[in-house]
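Hello,

Following up on my earlier ticket. Below are the two sequence lines again, exactly as submitted.
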Amino acid sequence: MSTPAAVRYWEGELTVYKRIWFSNVLGSFVQPMLYLLGIGVGVGSLIDDGGGSTASLGGIPYVAFFAPAILAETTMMLCAQDSLWPVMDGFMWSYRYRSAAATPLGSNDLVAGIALWQVTRCLIAAGGVAIALLLFDDTRSWGLVPAIGFAVLTGLAFTMPISAWSASRESDKSFPAIMRFGILPMFLFGGAFYPVSELPGWLRPAAYATPLYHGIELCRRSVIETLTWERGLVHVGALVGFIVIGTLLCRRVFAKRLGT
Amino acid sequence: MQVRSPVVLVKARGLVKRFGDFTAVDGIDVEVHPGEAFGFLGPNGAGKSSTMRMIGCTSDATDGELTIFGMDPRTQGREIRARLGVVPQQDQLDSELTVEENLVVYGRFFDIPRAECRRRAAELLDFVQLGERAKSRVEPLSGGMKRRVTIARSLINKPQLMLLDEPTTGLDPQARHLLWDKLYRLKQQGVTLVLTTHYMDEAEQLCDRLVVMDKGRIVAEGSPRQLIEAHSTREVLELRFAAGTNDTGAELLDGIGDRVEALPDRVLVYTDDGEKALSAAHDRGADSESSLVRRSSLEDVFLRLTGRTLVE
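Thanks for your patience. The regenerated structure is below:
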């Protein structure tokens, strides 16, 4: 009985994770709770009208609008961080990838294994957020189940392209800039805190071009149950596009880097 | 006694590796037979590591032929790697994990069942005298211990061929001798070793046969003894002169022995009788600060073949 190569690589990551699982799992729940209470409930109480809802958000409470976006925001942050320094580490500092490439595992197996591991990380993180969301009447919904899947897709849409970038770099000089000028603006302007329609017209297309916007739309509409098939396909298609292109780039860059 | 079977484990013909304009390996021919310890001796940048990566099937050859176990690395890299034990130049252990976990995780990459990985890990850690450290984390271990963990890890798949890239570079003498002993035992068990080194003593200790590499080419091949016999004299007289007077010292010694070589820090006189050469030098009034008569080594072979010393 042979185990698929990507799973064998994944087992290695899991062995490392076992050392930090408790604080990580706890954090996956605590951090979204802080967002939910601080922004969802706190800011919400300022915004919502007397009836506990906001007309400009389509008549739903602010917490129901904001909270589902935390799913996509969380996996984006997680995957962006996991795909910068840890990937460079695999090639240049701990040589983790080089070490694995000396075994029957090939570079494509590594890329698949990394993707599989990020899926696991996203499931844990999004699972923590979903549990937090279950605690609020406004976000307790069956839509949380598909939303976890959408959050995982969002994470992969970041992991694959960013890993390809990190794997092609000789230094981490560009990494802080990616976080500051790429990820953070998406976090703020990607439609989590207010609808993208509130942005100035010229800025909107930029928001539509980010994976985060599509991830947030999917998670939010799934939880508040306004997701149509047509909309869903468009947003999922956009995320899958990022994942496919990112994966192809990753496979190329990993093969080239490990071959020298 | 090892009986040399006619099978060739590694066979390279006109092997070339280029990185852009730079030619790291420039058309080498190599054959490694089962049970032997084969070495690539040369200074840093001679192309040894590039050659090792091609044999390890992690880097494609730019040109030439290469087969390992009779298979083609380009199409059967996975099958070949499954039968290799690789000890890279830098330790690639996961410092967060324990010694045992490192071996098990690595063993799983070969699709060896987890329980079997644990059983083999215990056995291999005993072999490298680290059985008691199985449950400790890798990070605080000494350089020599990490090296031994790496060797144990590379044996987890019971490799037929071990590739060791500079196995003892950076280790203290005691750790090196312990490691050599372990490698010697593996050789006795019939494991074929291919190693690179820029230490002549390491090559002399471990290798049955070696090639001397310089600038991507093989400049000589044979057993350590054959190479010394073919390219050097029996003995060497080393004389140290006051700083900056080596060249005048060398001129004075000209004609004594077979050959006189002036290095920045000393003058070497190649001769079959070192003591006689020393008294001849004194007769000529050579005013050296110190003198030493020793046997020829691979270092001298390298100097003779390339005009440069191995460790600069």
